[in-house]
Amino acid sequence: MTELRVAVLGVGLIGAQHVDRIERRIKGARLAVVNDYVTEKAEQVAAGIVGCRAVSDPLDAIADPDVDAVVLATPGPTHEKQLLACLEHGKPVLCEKPLTTDVATALELVKREAELGRKLIQVGFMRRFDDEYAALRAMIAAGELGEPLVMHCAHRNPAVPQGFNSEMVVRDSLVHEIDVARFMFGEEITSIQMVKPAPNPAAPGGLADPQIAILRTGTGKHVDVELFVTTGIAYEVRTEVVGEKGSATIGLDVNLVRKSVPGAWGGAITPSFKERFGRAFDTEIQRWVDAVRRGPGTGVYVDGPGAWDGYAAAAVCEAGVESLNTGLPVAVTLADRDSIKGA
Ligand code: ISE
């Protein structure tokens, strides 16, 4: 295939970053179409890119004959319709999380894609493409930690946008560790409990922060996550896996360690997910573009987490939100994957 012609739908925070990376760093792809619910914003982006047009209706952008593949960075509630349109037109799609905002529609998408017999949907769990996460995964897979048993995670943000509420801590933030736990352990999550400790006095009203998540996997492995999204300090995302033969930690931000101030030492910490995961996003999009270009020969248009992973994460989030309200552990029940041929 010649250069992949990509449509980016949604040019807000993350969509604009994808536009920039496709324009500047990704090989084998170019931007053909952009879309946003604020039409002028899309027009402004398109005006700066040779060969790129703004299309005001997202479904028209997907159907556009000049578009080979789609990046969805639109608000979650619009994903279901847009993903169905991608399947209908046979267009490979990289969809930022969430797959959809409820479990039933997420499962429906899994089934629809399976019926097509082609893997067209990739979900944007970018941490899987980060060098440190990939190294930890490889270490576990090689048996270097023996049987992995426990995972401790911290997910701290300096601040969140206005209107970010307690439920969003589960659906927008914890969702990453849910995917990481499934990725590292290679098992589904079977229960989740959310705990709300004494709140940060600086957190806005309506936001329970910090929160602690306790997850259990199919074979009884334990995962705990501290979520603290109003630290005022930095973007800190750490994961420690403890196994039969030792432990390993990633996300310590240990790059340059400075000892140039008398009586002190230190280094730099990332201010936001853009700096922490920028390279992971580049790798994710490059590998997706490469997979899509190979797709006609392989029938596989993804290289990374797919629709099932998006569905499984949505199911755990749904149970997490229920637990947030009751404080009790909530069981996660997934559909029988083996009964959905091709899922
Ligand atoms: C945001 O949506 C993200 O995906 C970030 O990676 C995460 O750290 C943040 O908490 C979310 O709000």
TrEMBL record:
Gene3D superfamilies: Dihydrodipicolinate Reductase, domain 2 (3.30.360.10), NAD(P)-binding Rossmann-like Domain (3.40.50.720)
Organism expressing this protein natively: Mycolicibacterium hippocampi
Species classification: Bacteria, Bacillati, Actinomycetota, Actinomycetes, Mycobacteriales
Keywords per UniProt: NAD, Oxidoreductase
GO biological process: inositol catabolic process
EC number: 1.1.1.18
Keyword RNA-binding among record annotations: no
Catalytic activity entry: myo-inositol + NAD(+) = scyllo-inosose + NADH + H(+)
Name by which UniProt lists this protein: Inositol 2-dehydrogenase
